[in-house]
């Protein structure tokens, strides 16, 4: 059953003439001697040596050995326009020469930052977010959300409303506040988190919690957990609820269509602010500029990062709707919060050019009309593989769940024992055979650049199937 990988059709040469040659062993030695990587087991890294990525073009990366890899994850869900966009580099270069840095504290501003703020206001859902606060990352955006929400309720004369509710297996970043808002048990265990004033409810995973229910009924039930939590804590103490429209790092958890409108209804019932963390879903990933537009709800605040610059330069921020802006920006006096790099001119210049590309090439619409449906069809075909229990896609985010035994529905498959680490085994085969997928337990994830073509989706799917075969050979 194993397809020889060498026979797979490719859209670009397997190896490219390297513009520079690299001494991989020496780079790996320096790396493991000095570089502490994020979310990495360094003993395992030392044993294997890090793969050194040296170049990118479109959806492809090359490592220091000259090997070509399909980047099925768009970096970390961020390189939306793909690699190698000279016009973004040119925009940043020009801005660095013109004005590399100036802050936005103390009644000053800069041209790219104010232009970007105006553009984001125009692009925001219903053009209803007329203000933006810039940060350097998604984590800082969510720290800003926490500070902003609490400041809002102070200004509203209800300072006792200081509790934020997030979800188990949600991800909102790695700073103390962002990791607390997130619901990653491993992160909480290592940091004495969450900090006080943050609570969590379950995630709307139909596969995990919907046995015996229709998807629609499960969506309403999962939203009902928020109401239960609000009543348990006391509605007068709850400030905000935060969630990702589709959970990314948690494993592409796509909620039923009934979920988010019901969440909005519950928040409205108790006057609670609703925050959409669009760090992954924003800027086209789900085939809309913002994921909340697909999921059918209007939040009060939107956290963003990643796709706003396609990761070329770090930038994040919070889009602020009228309810919060009215108190915070118009009546609130000084909001004692900000970062040296809030509104960094070079980052904002990168974002302006990135958004110009997204619009000029119609990439967001392409995800909705062409590449998203095509990926869905390819993943549905992969779900016939003996190792795959089910496939789920939303725009250009997709997951395959690996199972020991297939069943008629998502609740009828026999799972692998976690200690078999089949997801990690599959990821290793992918990595060795020129495609990057992420493994979240037994869920194999892709979220490629939005610039991917249908031919490249075919190429990606063929390679995934071949690596599923290799994994199957090893586990049976
Ligand atoms: N929010 C979500 C939904 C994310 O996926 C991430 C990162 O993956 C973050 C926040 C944190 O962003 P950053 O890593 O830029 O701090």
UniProtKB/TrEMBL annotation:
Pfam families: Aminotran_3. InterPro entries: Aminotrans_3, Aminotrans_3_PPA_site, PyrdxlP-dep_Trfase, PyrdxlP-dep_Trfase_major, PyrdxlP-dep_Trfase_small. This is Aspartate aminotransferase family protein. PROSITE patterns: AA_TRANSFER_CLASS_3. Gene3D superfamilies: Aspartate Aminotransferase, domain 1, Type I PLP-dependent aspartate aminotransferase-like (Major domain). SUPFAM superfamilies: PLP-dependent transferases (SSF53383). Belongs to the class-III pyridoxal-phosphate-dependent aminotransferase family. Coiled coil: none annotated. It comes from Massilia hydrophila. CDD domains: OAT_like. Keywords: Aminotransferase, Pyridoxal phosphate, Transferase.
């Amino acid at each position: 059953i194993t397809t020889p990988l060498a026979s797979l059709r490719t859209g670009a040469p397997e190896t490219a003439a390297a513009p520079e040659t690299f001494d991989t062993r020496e780079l790996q030695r320096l790396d493991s001697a000095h570089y502490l990587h994020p979310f990495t087991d360094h003993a395992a890294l030392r044993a294997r040596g890090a793969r050194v990525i040296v170049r990118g073009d479109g959806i492809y990366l090359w490592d220091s050995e000259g090997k070509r890899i399909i980047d099925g994850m768009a970096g970390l869900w961020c390189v939306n326009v793909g690699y190698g966009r000279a016009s973004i580099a040119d925009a940043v270069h020009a801005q660095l020469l013109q004005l590399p840095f100036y802050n936005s504290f103390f009644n000053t501003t800069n041209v790219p930052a104010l232009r970007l703020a105006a553009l984001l206001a125009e692009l925001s859902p219903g053009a209803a977010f007329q203000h933006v606060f810039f940060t350097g990352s998604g984590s800082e955006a969510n720290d800003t959300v926490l500070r902003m929400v609490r400041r809002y309720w102070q200004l509203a004369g209800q300072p006792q409303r200081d509790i934020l509710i997030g979800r188990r297996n949600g991800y909102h970043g790695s700073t103390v506040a962002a990791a607390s808002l997130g619901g990653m048990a491993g992160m909480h265990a290592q940091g004495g988190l969450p900090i006080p004033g943050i609570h969590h409810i379950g995630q709307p995973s139909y596969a995990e919690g919907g046995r015996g229910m229709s998807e629609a009924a499960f969506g309403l039930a999962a939203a009902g957990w928020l109401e239960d939590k609000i009543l348990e804590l006391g509605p007068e103490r709850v400030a905000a609820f935060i969630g990702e429209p589709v959970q990314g790092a948690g494993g592409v958890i796509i909620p039923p269509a009934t979920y988010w409108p019901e969440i909005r209804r519950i928040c409205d019932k108790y006057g609670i602010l609703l925050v959409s963390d669009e760090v992954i879903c924003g800027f086209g990933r789900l085939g809309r500029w913002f994921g909340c537009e697909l999921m059918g709800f209007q939040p009060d605040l939107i956290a963003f990062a990643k796709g706003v610059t396609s990761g070329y330069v770090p930038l994040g921020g919070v889009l602020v709707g009228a309810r919060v802006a009215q108190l915070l920006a118009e009546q609130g006096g000084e909001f004692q919060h900000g970062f040296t790099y809030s509104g960094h001119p070079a980052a904002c210049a990168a974002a302006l050019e990135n958004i110009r590309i997204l619009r000029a090439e119609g990439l967001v619409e392409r995800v909705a009309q062409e590449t998203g449906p095509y990926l869905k069809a390819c993943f549905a075909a992969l779900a016939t593989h003996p190792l795959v229990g089910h496939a789920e896609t939303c725009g250009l985010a997709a997951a395959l769940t690996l199972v020991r035994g297939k069943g008629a529905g998502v609740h009828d498959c026999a799972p692998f024992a976690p200690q078999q680490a089949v997801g990690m085994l599959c990821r290793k085969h992918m990595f060795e055979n020129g495609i990057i997928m992420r493994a979240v337990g037994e869920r194999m994830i892709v979220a490629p650049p939005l610039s991917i073509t249908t031919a490249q989706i075919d190429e990606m799917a063929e390679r995934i199937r071949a690596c599923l075969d290799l994994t199957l050979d090893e586990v049976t």
